[in-house]
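User: Small ask, check this?
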Amino acid sequence: MGPPALPETGFLDEWAARLRQAADRPVVGIMLRGSHARRAATEHSDVDVDVLVATEEPNGDLLSGADRAADGPSIPRPAVPPGVASRAADPYAVRRAYLAEFEGRLVHVSVAARDVRSWVERLGQPADWAFGLPVTAPARLIWATPEWRRRIDLPVLCQPADEPRLEELIATLGKIAAARWADDPLGVRLAAADLARLCPSVLRLVNPSVRVVSRRDALAAALDLPVAPPGYRDDMLRCLGLRPGTTGEVAAAAGRLVTGAVPLVRPYAEEIAAVAGADLAEALVDGRLDRYLAQLTRALGRPGATSRDTSAVPTPRAGEWLTVPASDAPVTGAPASSGDAAASGPARPSRLDPAIAARLRRTPDGLVAAVVRQHDSGEVLMVAWMDDEALHRTLTSGRATYWSRSRQEYWVKGDTSGHHQYVRSVALDCDGDALLVSVDQVGAACHTGHRTCFFTELPVSFPEATS
């Protein structure tokens, strides 16, 4: 069975004539947009139409020489306060909706009357619904005056990508932290939804270019960005309200989105400087931004003293490590069939380069010890465990990622405490059973708050030499 009958030339021509008569300024063009222009409409889809009208000059003259059509109901102008002159730069946008008969059923016709010059200029600005991604949306010119046809007869309407809005992303995380302290669950959720819509504009710096044609297409593309923090898709859905979660879970998801995005875009400080200024770009590089995010993320897990949100997550202690479920499922590898097999193969599926995986000698649990040191001083900071997938994430994300034997989860150092480890190099020892991870440590490495886990000196005695 084919698609239902949809309004075509006769219906659209009739409405074009009607809308030209209804406008209070000379009409220079009428454009069909949305699902009908994309030929993706169903019998329940709206018919979206832009009526493009002549631009009014400050002195009241119109740029188009077309005469206003007489008779017919008028689409009113927006109210202008007394004594305030109309300006050509003012956006002229009036919406009207109609229910029209078409082949025995009602069709919703949604009409936007727009100043033609501001409509053309708007094509040079990002679309507010596109999650910061560039837009290439099909359109169809129904009618136009000869002098405007060449300029507005566009088979697709192209709008550029948004700038990387890192400053707004951080500010919105601050609103979420403030709402948590004020025991304002609705404020947390509203700000988290705003944060999720901003996040793809920042991650676009590190991802291949993708163009979208609709809001639904934009959401799908934003969720599927290939370079993103661990758990990105789940956290985006939770922040947008498309996946259930307590207020604490939503706040934590927002924190992970920001703290996970920042190290990914650190190499793009120049692009950030061009948008948000030199200070934010310098803070991105010198660690101040990480410290600020640590302040915010500590607040995200700590509701106000009079909190009524009984499902809120516990307050993290300073230096506490975060465990992150491995939600971005690996695509290669296979579980070991027995404890003995784990020493020669991965215990969990992994995307680790097979050439590297073949050199590892694992424990029966499929793990390799990771000794972590400060890259420039050589100070030994801690010892943790990695499986194949944790090593893959460490090598490809720039963030030290480990496997928790007690919780049976992956965790990224610093995602709660803010004491991040930015990976500078990873070396495998000669036997393949230990890793040396050189990092740039922000703050304390130990969950006790000490710089290093090796702060307890043990007594060492030396036998006296005998003659």
Q: What stands out?
A: Residues 166-300 form a domain with the Four Helix Bundle (Hemerythrin (Met), subunit A) fold (CATH 1.20.120.330).
